[in-house]
Design a protein that fits this description.
elongated, mainly alpha, about 85% helix
Length: about 70
């Protein structure tokens, strides 16, 4: 049982190394000059995008209302 535990530990260590290499490769391929946006930055961008989408829909609704009133 002790040998099985050490074998499992060794497998997990190798898996950790592979995942770390895959993560580092992903960062290298998907960043510019090593820049990775923080979670708070991503949240701010998402909130700003939501605001823009809401403003776009409000503008479209206002345009529709204006057109209906104009044509009435």
């Amino acid at each position: 049982m002790l040998i099985q535990t050490f074998d499992k530990l060794h497998e997990l260590e190798e898996d950790c190394v592979r995942k770390n290499e895959a993560y580092n490769n992903f960062i290298d391929e998907n960043t510019r000059a090593g820049y990775v946006p923080s979670d708070s930055y991503i949240t701010e961008i998402s909130m700003a995008r939501r605001g823009v989408n809401e403003a776009y829909h409000a503008l479209a609704d206002a345009d529709d209302a204006y057109t209906k009133e104009k044509n009435a």
